[in-house]
Every structure is written in structure tokens, then in C-alpha cells.
Design goal:
single chain, 166 residues, alpha/beta, Cytidine Deaminase, domain 2, five-stranded mixed sheet, 5 helices, zinc ion binding, APOBEC/CMP_deaminase_Zn-bd, Cytidine_deaminase-like
Length: 166
């Protein structure tokens, strides 16, 4: 578990990079052996691209790093449970193991809503380890969305000509 936490902390650092540019704080690293070969963080708003999820960016980097579309001996560490698109990419790229922090009750496809990465109908299944530094990963998202809601509320008040500090 100590090893998983070490790499999840690197994924958390990636998530903080996303937050710093106004993106939802989700980060991912891909590891082969004991070496990080790829890293990514959410860039959907920045790139105006629906597929610019942390996992998708990291998978593409890993493919390039290995000069191979197969990531058979790789582990993917991500702060939030992968969505259907990312779970599909994990299966298609043949990632060996997925390690995630927080569960995603609205889109999680590594066991929460469904389990695409372990569905035996596909030609590949990945091992799944969940809840690694879950509290820390979840807190990043909770704070981000709380602040976002507050900024939106503030903007609505200012549009109406209200000064909330009065």
C-alpha cells in the first residue's frame, strides 16, 4: 500500500496543476515497474476538448513513451474513478492495473455505476484497487466545487447590482 500511496501522491500533484489553471482537479500518472512514464491532468476547459481527461492525456503520453499502444505492464493511478470513456481507453490500451482515490457516484466505471474495466465480455480486464488516499483525493474535488459554486453565486449577485459585502 505504501507504494500505491507514493504514486497516488504524484497523481494528486497532477490534480493540483489542473486546479491551478481552473480545471476540475483530477490527476493521473502511469507507472511501468517503478518508473512514472506518463502524467496528465484535466484540460477540458483549457483545450476545449471533451476528451481531455487526465487519464486520456496520460495514456497517450505512455503510448508515445513506449512506442506502443499496448500498456500491458503498466499501472494507472488516478485521483477520481475513471468515467466510461477513460475506462474504455484503459481496456483498449490493456492497462494491467487501475488504482484510484475517490469514487465517482455520477460516472464511475470501475465499480461504482458499472465496472467496465473488469467486464469479462471484453478481451482485456484490469485489476482495480480503490480508495487509495480517497479522503485527500475527494477533498480536492469538494473544495474545488464549493469554491466554484461560491464564485457563481457572487457573479449572479453582482449581475443584479447587489453588493454582498453590504
Amino acid at each position: 500500500m505504501e507504494r500505491d500511496e507514493r504514486f497516488m501522491r504524484l497523481a494528486i500533484e497532477e490534480a493540483k496543476k489542473a486546479e491551478a489553471i481552473g480545471e476540475v482537479p483530477i490527476g493521473c500518472v502511469i507507472v511501468k515497474g517503478d518508473e512514472v512514464i506518463a502524467a496528465g491532468h484535466n484540460r477540458r476547459e483549457t483545450d476545449l476538448l471533451a476528451t481531455a481527461h487526465a487519464e486520456m492525456i496520460a495514456i497517450e503520453q505512455a503510448n508515445q513513451a513506449l512506442s506502443n499502444w499496448r500498456l500491458e505492464d503498466c499501472e494507472l493511478f488516478v485521483t477520481l474513478e475513471p468515467c466510461p470513456m477513460c475506462a474504455g481507453a484503459i481496456v483498449l490500451s490493456r492497462v494491467k492495473r487501475v488504482i484510484f482515490g475517490a469514487h465517482d457516484p455520477k460516472g464511475g466505471c470501475c465499480g461504482t455505476l458499472m465496472n467496465l474495466v473488469q467486464d469479462e465480455r471484453f478481451n482485456h480486464q484490469a485489476e482495480v484497487t480503490q480508495n487509495v488516499l480517497a479522503e485527500e483525493c475527494g477533498e480536492l474535488l469538494t473544495i474545488f466545487f464549493r469554491n466554484l459554486r461560491e464564485r457563481k453565486k457572487q457573479a449572479r449577485l453582482e449581475q443584479r447590482g447587489c453588493n454582498p459585502s453590504d
